[in-house]
Amino acid sequence: MTWCAERPDGQVEIPSPTHRGTTWKCRWGRTAPIPGDAAAYDAELARGVADLSWEEPVDSVARLMRLELAASGCFQRWGWGVNTVHPLRSQGSAQVRVHFSPLEAPYANGRTFVHEVAVARDVPAEEQVRRFVDMVAADDPRGTARTLG
């Protein structure tokens, strides 16, 4: 698999499967060969996606939270849309931040809220996500969030 790490934000990009076996043109004009056949590419991509061994508990909670919030619709029940879900680390502690705002006005000034969910290393990620989703499903999330900005 060929990775292009030329993005200004330091992120890596994977070429689209439609470009397998050819060259891939990075956004900044350089091309990179994509070696191997389509089956090998698919197998390596599947292996990379399935390997979660690098995840810390905060990464697992953030990943599962994104999936569960999208599937549950618990924020939409109250007229809110989830803008972002991302992990944060600091010395000795970790949390997942969930930003949300009105469905009709994403990131509206003064109407965007954030939940900061503390992540515990000794509690399964699935349980931590379930607790948060249950809390949001039970009551308007603004009551336990702070206004962003």
Can you offer a commentary on this structure?
A hairpin with a 5-residue loop joins strand 1 (23-25) and strand 2. The longest helix has 16 residues, at 57-72. Mean pLDDT is 80; it is low at 1-12. This protein has helices at residues 38-50, 57-72, 125-138, and strands at residues 23-25, 31-33, 80-90, 93-102, 113-118, 146-147. With 149 residues, the chain is α+β, with helices and mostly antiparallel strands. It is built from 3 helices and 6 strands. Helix 2 (57-72) runs parallel beside helix 3 (125-138). Strands 3-4-5-6 form a 4-stranded antiparallel sheet, with helices on one face. Strands 1-2 form a two-stranded antiparallel ribbon.
What is the topological layout?
Layout lengths: L22 E3 L5 E3 L4 H13 L6 H16 L7 E11 L2 E10 L10 E6 L6 H14 L7 E2 L2
Helix pairs in contact: 2-3
Summarize the structure.
By secondary structure, the protein is of the alpha+beta class. It has helices spanning 38-50, 57-72, 125-138; strands spanning 23-25, 31-33, 80-90, 93-102, 113-118, 146-147. It has a 4-stranded antiparallel beta sheet, with helices on one face. It has a two-stranded antiparallel sheet with strand order 1-2.
Relevant terms:
alpha+beta, disordered N terminus, 149 residues, single chain
Uncertain spans: 1-12
Structural class: alpha+beta
Give the proportion of residues in helices: 25-40%
N-to-C terminal Cα separation, in Å?
41 Å
Strand order of the largest sheet: 3-4-5-6
Strand content bin:
15-25%
Helix-strand pattern, N to C? Answer: EEHHEEEHE
Largest sheet: 4 strands, antiparallel
* Overall spatial form: globular
User: What's the pLDDT, averaged over the residues?
Assistant: 80
Quaternary state of the chains: single chain
Number of strands: 6
Radius of gyration: 19 Å
**Number of discrete helical segments:** 3
